[in-house]
């Protein structure tokens, strides 16, 4: 079921009159879909949102220490920024690079604000994490479910413990599917620095998961 927030976003800009879009194809590129949305095809927004909402939400959430309320606020802000900027969109880079640049800037803007009152660690633990709440098949043995949850929780904790620059490079690579060059563009770091951050991040995550086993 489409969320109220999604419906609100998708309804923005649906007023283009006289626009008759051709049928969309599943293989349409993100860039083509964004151009269609800019021209008035609201259905193209739905496809873009469906493709990228999970990665963007996880990227923001992992950057904010799983503060769900703040993550949801910034998540909605990213998509509203996309809606607002649709008229001036130019496919000079991959759509994902453009989208995650918006997300990166929203996170940076948040970190530059005066420090807000943090949710307590206990409150965050009580909320849990959506990635850990996916029901497992009934045929999976309880001990294997427990082990998978333990591993997932450990990985999340390890990601959150990374230095900010390493964590962001890792999340942009894993959640956004961005290349080293694209991450360098978004973060303003040089290519070698990004490669180094990814290497150190992956090394720490591997070592942390090996220590668990």
How would you characterize the overall build of this protein?
With about 210 residues, the chain is mainly alpha-helical. The protein folds into 2 domains: about 120 residues, RNA polymerase sigma factor, region 2, helix turn helix motif (Rna Polymerase Sigma Factor, Chain: A, Orthogonal Bundle), CATH 1.10.1740; about 80 residues, Orthogonal Bundle (Arc Repressor Mutant, subunit A). Helices cover about 65% and strands about 0% of the residues. The protein is built from 10 helices and no strands. Helix 3 packs antiparallel against helix 8. It is globular and about 50 Å long. About 25% of the residues are buried.
Features:
2 domains, mainly alpha, 67% helix, Rna Polymerase Sigma Factor, Chain: A, disordered N terminus, Arc Repressor Mutant, subunit A, 213 residues, globular
Could you give a quick summary of the protein structure above?
It is built from ten helices and no strands. By secondary structure, it is mainly α.
């Amino acid at each position: 079921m489409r969320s109220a927030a999604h419906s609100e976003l998708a309804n923005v800009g649906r007023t283009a009159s006289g626009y008759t879009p051709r049928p969309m194809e599943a293989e349409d590129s993100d860039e083509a879909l964004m151009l269609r949305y800019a021209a008035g095809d609201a259905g193209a927004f739905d496809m873009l949102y469906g493709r990228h909402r999970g990665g963007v939400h996880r990227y923001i959430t992992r950057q904010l220490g799983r503060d769900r309320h703040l993550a949801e606020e910034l998540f909605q802000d990213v998509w509203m920024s996309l809606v607002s900027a649709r008229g001036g969109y130019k496919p000079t880079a991959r759509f994902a690079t453009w989208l995650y640049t918006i997300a990166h800037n929203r996170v940076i803007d948040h970190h530059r604000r005066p420090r807000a009152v943090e949710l307590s660690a206990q409150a965050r633990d009580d909320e849990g994490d959506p990635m850990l709440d996916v029901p497992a098949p009934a045929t999976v043995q309880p001990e294997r479910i427990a082990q998978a949850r333990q591993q997932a929780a450990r990985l999340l904790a390890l990601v959150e413990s990374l230095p900010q620059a390493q964590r962001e490079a890792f999340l942009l690579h894993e959640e956004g599917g961005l290349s080293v060059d694209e991450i360098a563009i978004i973060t303003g770091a040089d290519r070698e620095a990004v490669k180094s951050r990814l290497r150190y991040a992956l090394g720490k995550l591997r070592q942390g998961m090996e220590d668990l086993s």
